[in-house]
Amino acid sequence: YPTWKRTLTRRAREAQMKRFCKAQAIQRRLEEIEVTFRELEQQGIKLEKLLRDEDGTPADKKTQWMNQLLYLVQKKNSLMSEESDLMIMVQELKLQQQQWQLDQKLRSYMNREESLKTPEDHAAEQEILGQLVEVVNKRNVLIHMQEEKRLSEL
């Protein structure tokens, strides 16, 4: 087993583990965001009830409640934006995984001796290459979306 193949195998495993760890971290953050959404929703409901039942409440108290409500809405919007970013990252990880798998299949076909390849092998190689290009294009679209979102937020 040549050294370069061991190195490639090790690097592939490391990349796989990085993607796995990143996916776990994203999943944890998405769960935290969901819990925070529920908490913000409950706080918002309480503030709305206070604002509706405002008979005899001083104006400064009403203003304070309204400011708290606006803060909750702002926080919820920022969490929704973060959730959107995380979902894009999840798609990116899926596409990275898919690209890696297709790359491995393509390498297995390309490593075969050209004289030993059957017409079916050539067709499969071309199909995998097409799928690989499609995945790369999808990743490009995601990156473009992220860049547009980042620029619009600035």
Automatic annotation (TrEMBL):
<keyword id="KW-0503">Monooxygenase</keyword>
<keyword id="KW-0175">Coiled coil</keyword>
<dbReference type="InterPro" id="IPR050540">
    <property type="entry name" value="F-actin_Monoox_Mical"/>
</dbReference>
<protein>
    <submittedName>
        <fullName>MICA1 monooxygenase</fullName>
    </submittedName>
</protein>
<dbReference type="Pfam" id="PF12130">
    <property type="entry name" value="bMERB_dom"/>
</dbReference>
<feature type="domain" description="BMERB">
    <location>
        <begin position="13"/>
        <end position="154"/>
    </location>
</feature>
<dbReference type="InterPro" id="IPR022735">
    <property type="entry name" value="bMERB_dom"/>
</dbReference>
<feature type="coiled-coil region">
    <location>
        <begin position="23"/>
        <end position="50"/>
    </location>
</feature>
<dbReference type="GO" id="GO:0004497">
    <property type="term" value="F:monooxygenase activity"/>
</dbReference>
<keyword id="KW-0472">Membrane</keyword>
<keyword id="KW-0560">Oxidoreductase</keyword>
